[in-house]
Structure prediction request, 189 residues.
Amino acid sequence: MAAPASEATMDRRMRKTRRAIREALQTLLQNGAIEQITIKDIAAEADIGYTTFFRHFPSKEAALADLADTEAAELIDFSFPLLSSQDSRASCIALCRHVDEKRRVWSALLTSGAAGIVRDALAAHTLERAGDWPAARAWLPEGAGTTLVIGLTVEVLTWWLSSARQLSAEQVGEIMDRLFVAQLIAQSD
Prediction:
């Protein structure tokens, strides 16, 4: 089956259906892991026909990857300019506030077994915008910056959304900054 068309080449009706599928998947992920969700469940929740689903995605995993990619692109679009600033603490807090505002979606993605897909999407979008980030350090192997920052970010967010829900976005941003962000973006080696 051919790869799904990009959103830019779709007509309004197609974009609306894909958005309905993403929203349905978000809702269903709040009640169970991707392995427990069927395409029939997604179609019913999206209020579309079963075969309509396949006009947009070859599998539920492809729909999940689309959801993760959409949310990752939005997070990177929002946070990347902030993370490039000199105030890494404020940047981390802003990133966590953004996730907190969409807690339902991010909880569904990161605690339903899709963390690996999210990590890959975040890394791809970061690499598109900045290459290896943060800037190379003599002690850090080339290409490791983005992978490490994204991996650690996903792990901290997953921990927060699954085990430490009582912490505020500000507290989690502070943890991220102290654990790894401030160290990796510091100007000196």
